[in-house]
């Protein structure tokens, strides 16, 4: 293992050369999973982090956003049930919600996660890391010291992505929110404009409207455009029912905030203007690869990285450089990055041991799910969950398919979630193989249905066999029974 990883001599001339089997750049969930699997394979590992150990997901994305959303959704769920809605009175306690959020992000203290990294036997180094040619990484610490690490078997870049904010007139003076400000704010803006109809946009619109903001959601395209069309329509209806002003087909052209403590004037391309206390841009992500030394290995700084089925970067000889998680652009989702990371850690260990790799579809060292079975959930009201291909995607890919739709109102188990339950489900069936290519669910509580669909897609379970998977009565999982009945006709 390395020596004194979190201490170094100070000064510009301080350089320490440390050899490791694997160097992991980025200590978020993705980097942690690479490190854990590489350590399980008997390799020495250094993990490098410039911010908080735990990364974006733990402190400014998945964890705090869900912590903010759950109280909002819990109250909304109660209001959908006769007898319970009468017990819901008063407003949500924002102090209670923010306190809950702060507990789940451990008050932005990464001590526990840093201890976990050390606990698996990896060394943790803090500072800005960048490649310095093949198998070399330089870490510059806050005191100006430098440590040079060499990797015998692999360098895994797990640096994640940054929010994209469009270059608009008045942007600097407007001081817009990104996902970071939207999840760590300790005050509720009276009026919030959310720009973007993807996952961050719809979830943050849901959360802040529920916490007391008057939210306007602006999107150029229908909401959640990568899912089945009915998903965005139902989520838009849910947002409107909750009081959000949803405007589709509009863009922001300029911003004005002449008084730093005053409101933001938002100018739209249709000529209208909005006044808001804060504006959140949820308009996409860019790879965090600008300052990691890609140019030293013949790659373009700031680019998404093209990888093979083991996440080894194409265009770099020797299969030593890996790009894992957001920066390979396969699926910008924490759980999908962790899936890649486990495969990468195992692949590095196998290559180090001289063992052959199993890169066949669904093999131990192939990220096959990135192309065929990516699950995603958005915790709006109603929830939206999907895995695999939509009907349009499957058709474009050349499959002969049939889409089967069922309304959740037909399912007796829906009574456990809401009176007048509104929801919809779809299966996309490959007619030639009679297996599932995709599944989509919209409605209260549907997130817990998704893993069964994921197993069916990944396992390529024949649709006739699924008839023998009996759903418990009365639960919403009975939707499977109704979907299969609809497929049989």
UniProtKB/TrEMBL annotation:
One MF annotation (Gene Ontology) recorded for this entry: dihydrolipoyl dehydrogenase (NADH) activity
Co-factor binding details: Binds 1 FAD per subunit.
Named cofactor requirement(s): FAD
Protein name: NAD(P)/FAD-dependent oxidoreductase
Chain residues that bind FAD: 66, 159-161, 326
Domain FAD/NAD(P)-binding: 20-331
GO biological processes: 2-oxoglutarate metabolic process
Cystine residue pairs: 57-62
Pyridine nucleotide-disulphide oxidoreductase dimerisation domain location: 374-479
Similarity remark: Belongs to the class-I pyridine nucleotide-disulfide oxidoreductase family.
Provenance organism: Streptomyces liangshanensis
A Pfam family matched in the record: Pyr_redox_2
Residue ranges the record marks as coiled coil: none
Keyword NAD among UniProt keywords: yes
Keywords for this protein: FAD, Flavoprotein, NAD, Nucleotide-binding
Top-level division of the source organism's lineage: Bacteria
Binding residues for NAD(+): 196-203, 284
InterPro entries membership: Class-I_Pyr_Nuc-Dis_Oxidored (IPR050151), FAD/NAD-bd_sf (IPR036188), FAD/NAD-binding_dom (IPR023753), FAD/NAD-linked_Rdtase_dimer_sf (IPR016156), Pyr_nuc-diS_OxRdtase (IPR001100), Pyr_nucl-diS_OxRdtase_dimer (IPR004099)
Nucleotide-binding found in the keyword field: yes
């Amino acid at each position: 293992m390395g020596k004194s990883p979190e201490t170094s001599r100070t000064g510009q001339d301080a350089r320490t050369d440390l050899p490791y089997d694997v160097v992991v750049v980025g200590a978020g969930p993705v980097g942690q999973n690479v490190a854990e699997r590489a350590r399980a394979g008997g390799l020495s590992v250094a993990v490098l982090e410039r911010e908080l150990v735990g990364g974006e997901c733990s402190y400014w994305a998945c964890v705090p956003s869900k912590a903010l959303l759950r109280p909002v959704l819990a109250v909304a769920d109660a209001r959908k049930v006769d007898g319970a809605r009468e017990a819901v009175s008063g407003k949500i306690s924002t102090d209670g919600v923010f306190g809950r959020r702060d507990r789940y992000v451990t008050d932005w203290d990464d001590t526990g996660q840093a201890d976990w990294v050390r606990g698996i036997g990896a060394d943790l180094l803090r500072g800005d890391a960048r490649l310095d040619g093949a198998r070399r990484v330089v870490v510059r610490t806050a005191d100006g010291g430098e440590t040079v690490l060499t990797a015998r078997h692999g360098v895994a870049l797990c640096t994640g992505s940054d929010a994209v904010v469009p270059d608009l007139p008045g942007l600097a003076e407007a001081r817009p929110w990104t996902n970071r400000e939207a999840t760590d704010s300790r005050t509720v803006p009276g009026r919030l404009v959310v720009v973007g109809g993807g996952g961050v946009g719809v979830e943050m619109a849901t959360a802040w409207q529920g916490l007391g903001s008057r939210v306007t959601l602006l999107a150029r395209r229908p909401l959640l455009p990568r899912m089945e069309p009915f998903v965005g329509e139902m989520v838009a209806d849910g947002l409107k029912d909750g009081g959000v002003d949803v405007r589709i087909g509009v863009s922001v052209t300029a911003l004005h905030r002449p008084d730093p403590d005053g409101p933001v004037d938002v100018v739209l391309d249709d000529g209208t203007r909005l006044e808001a206390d804060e504006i959140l841009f949820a308009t996409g992500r860019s790879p965090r690869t600008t300052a990691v030394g890609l140019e030293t290995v013949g790659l373009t700084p700031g680019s998404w990285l093209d990888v093979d089925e083991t996440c080894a970067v194409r265009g770099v000889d020797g299969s030593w450089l890996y790009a894992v998680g957001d920066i390979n652009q396969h699926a910008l989702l924490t759980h999908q990055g962790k899936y890649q990371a486990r495969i990468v850690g195992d692949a590095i260990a196998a290559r180090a041991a001289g063992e052959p790799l199993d890169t066949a579809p669904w093999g131990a060292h192939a990220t096959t799910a990135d192309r065929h079975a990516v699950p995603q959930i958005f915790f709006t009201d109603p929830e939206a969950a999907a895995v695999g291909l939509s009907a349009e995607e499957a058709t474009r890919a050349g499959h002969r398919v049939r889409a089967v739709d069922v309304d959740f109102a037909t399912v007796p188990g829906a009574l456990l979630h809401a009176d007048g339950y509104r929801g919809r489900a779809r299966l996309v069936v490959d007619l030639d193989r009679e297996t599932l290519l995709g599944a989509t669910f919209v409605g209260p509580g549907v997130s817990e249905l998704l893993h069964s669909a994921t197993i069916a897609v990944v396992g390529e379970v024949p649709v006739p066999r699924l008839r023998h998977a009996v759903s418990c009565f009365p639960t919403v999982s009975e939707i499977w029974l109704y979907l299969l009945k609809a497929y049989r006709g």
